[in-house]
Structures are given as structure tokens and as C-alpha cells.
């Protein structure tokens, strides 16, 4: 019934939204905005804009949290006019989602060099004063945002970065043109379509049945250990990527992989983190750290990991100058993997 109606109503607009569930209606609406430039321009009239400056989101502080303010199209036009900017700059905005009531959300970077604006970059401090907020590096702000805002701003930053880095066709060298939603760019001379890309990354919590293996890179904050992570090579399956990364980084062989969950991760570019548990092959517990990739790796007992998860102020230097062992914060998928292992260290659900 609703399928028939969906097709019948498609002639007028895309779909007959009122016959669909809230979730389906929302996904169909976003699909329409990505496909139809006019519909997307219309959605900007009533939409909300999140602002960035050189990929740093505009945030306002509220007690211990950061909140990203939203701006209407009218407010944005006034702001651009006040700073002597052409409203054409709004064409650089990208669609990042919508509310259940179909208020579309967009992100716009006011600092990146714009292809559709004469002036390159707006003055950041003046902007911050005017907007009563600060443009804060996402890596610093991420853990002080709620889950919903963190995910939205990560998506926004990834998409803004991708557009900034794909302004020219790699075949013809000509400028590419984005569609209004920003879901693709097209080269006008040869019609090649470029879509935003993510790099698949496997992140694996290796266990020997009673202990789990955690490692740190020298770039991590002092004392923090995490699960093993690595980019998938071209042509690899996820299973092969997990086995190769574990072998490369700590010299062990694993099997019995169990998928846990996935997460979009905006750093360093845009990755799809695919998280899983794995068990070392029998008799293979001696770690051989690849020092080109890692600073250290070690087996940790269940009690040690439980204690680290309980620490409220993890980043703490001890009297002997060393840092307490601590784990990635809740928002990181590594945290979820570690918590799952704490709750089920022997992974009884894994196939034999
Ligand atoms: N969300 C989380 O919980 C979490 C936890 C740990 C790591 N991570 C992320 O996982 C990612 C990968 O981990 P890693 O650094 O150990 O990877 P890695 O072990 O594959 O080593 C990184 C190296 O891989 C190479 N590489 C191959 N393909 C690449 C690509 N598409 N982009 C960038 N480099 C590529 C580069 O030489 C780079 O120096 C990191 O970006 C890190 O931010 C996320
Ligand atoms: Mg790695």
C-alpha cells in the first residue's frame, strides 16, 4: 500500500512522506535533497547552518560541555554582508542531515579558500566575537560534545575537508563543481563524478582468553593505550586486514574474529573504523613490537583494564614521572571494544 502510494506520489514531489515511518520519511527526504538541487536550495531557506573556520567547528561553552550553535539562512546572509562577503559563499555549504520534522542541516566553512567567493578567508577573531563562540579544533572538542553533536560535526568536517581537497578533476585538471547538497562533485569537461570517500580501518582487540593486548603510538597522549588499528590495503578482505595488521604490529597470528561495531572517524581524513575481537592462535602470546609503528604493546589483565576504565582523571603523572595507564574515552570505538571484552573476557560466543 505505502509502496504503491510512494510511486504514485513520486510525480508531484519525490515521495508521499506522510505514509512512511518517521525514519523512512527522513531517509527519503535526505535522498531527495541529495538528488534534486532545487529541493536542496529550498531546504536551505528553512534549514539550520553549522559554521566552521578552517575545519574547526564554532562552539559555545555550556558548563562542562560544548554546544554547536545553529544559524538560519537569513542570519548567515546578514553575517556575510557584515563581513563584506558575497552571499554566494553559501553555495559551498554541505548537507549533513535533518531533523525528524525535516529541518535540513548544513555545514559551511567560513575560513577555507572558497571557489565561489572573491575573498579567501574571513577574519576569525572578529567572527568569533560576532558569533559569541569560538572555532575549536575538532580533535580537542570531540570529547566534550554529546554523542549526537560529535557525530554530526565529524560528518560535517569530513565532508567539508573532502570538498576542499577535491576541487579539481584528477583526469582533466579542470575545476569540479559540487551539487547543492555536496554529495558529489562533477567535472564539467568530461562528466566524471567524484563521491566523498572514506578509508576503511580495522581496529582489533586481541585476547588470549584471559588477557587483552593493548598498544600505544608515540603520538598518543601519555599513558593511553588502545586496541590495534590499521588501514585496509587495496584488495584485502576485513579478515585479511585484521590478520596482517596484528602480524605487522605485534608479530602474532590471530583467528576467530568476531565483528563488534563500526564508527566513522574524522581523523586524519575520514575513516570507517570496523571494530572486532580476535583470539591469538594457541601458543602465540609473545609480543614482538614493530617499533616503526608502535611505541609499546603489552598484555593487560582483566583487573588492570577494569581499574583503568574506572579512572575519572586518567591523564595523571605519578611521582616517578611515569603516567598512569588509561584507555580511550567513551566516544572512541576502541573504548566500546575494551568494555565488551571486560564484560565477556573469554568471548564465549566466539565460534570454536
Ligand atoms: N576511534 C578509535 O577508537 C580509534 C582507535 C585507534 C585508532 N584510530 C584511528 O585509526 C587510524 C589508523 O590507525 P593507524 O594510524 O595505527 O594505522 P596504520 O597502522 O595503518 O598505520 C598508519 C600508516 O598507514 C599508512 N596508510 C595506509 N593507508 C592510509 C590511508 N588511507 N590514510 C592514511 N595513512 C595510510 C600510512 O603510512 C600511515 O602512516 C588512525 O587514523 C587513528 O586515528 C581510531
Ligand atoms: Mg596501527
From TrEMBL:
Cellular component terms (Gene Ontology): mitochondrion
Catalytic activity: NAD(+) + H2O = beta-nicotinamide D-ribonucleotide + AMP + 2 H(+); NADPH + H2O = reduced beta-nicotinamide D-ribonucleotide + adenosine 2',5'-bisphosphate + 2 H(+); NADH + H2O = reduced beta-nicotinamide D-ribonucleotide + AMP + 2 H(+)
CDD domains (UniProt xref): NUDIX_NADH_pyrophosphatase_Nudt13
PROSITE patterns in UniProt: NUDIX, NUDIX_BOX
EC number: 3.6.1.22
InterPro entries: NADH_PPase-like_N, NudC-like_C, NUDIX_hydrolase-like_dom_sf, NUDIX_hydrolase_CS, NUDIX_hydrolase_dom, Znr_NADH_PPase
SUPFAM superfamilies tied to this protein: Nudix
GO molecular function: metal ion binding; pyrophosphatase activity
Keyword terms, alphabetized: Hydrolase, Magnesium, Manganese, Metal-binding, Mitochondrion, NAD, NADP, Transit peptide
Cofactor(s), names only, from the UniProt record: Mn(2+); Mg(2+)
Protein's cellular compartments: Mitochondrion
Main subcellular location of this protein, as a coarse class: mitochondrion
Domain of life (superkingdom): Eukaryota
Location of the Nudix hydrolase domain: 196-323
Functional summary from the UniProt entry: NAD(P)H pyrophosphatase that hydrolyzes NADH into NMNH and AMP, and NADPH into NMNH and 2',5'-ADP. Has a marked preference for the reduced pyridine nucleotides. Does not show activity toward NAD-capped RNAs; the NAD-cap is an atypical cap present at the 5'-end of some RNAs.
Stated name of the protein: NAD(P)H pyrophosphatase NUDT13, mitochondrial
Origin species: Myotis brandtii (Brandt's bat)
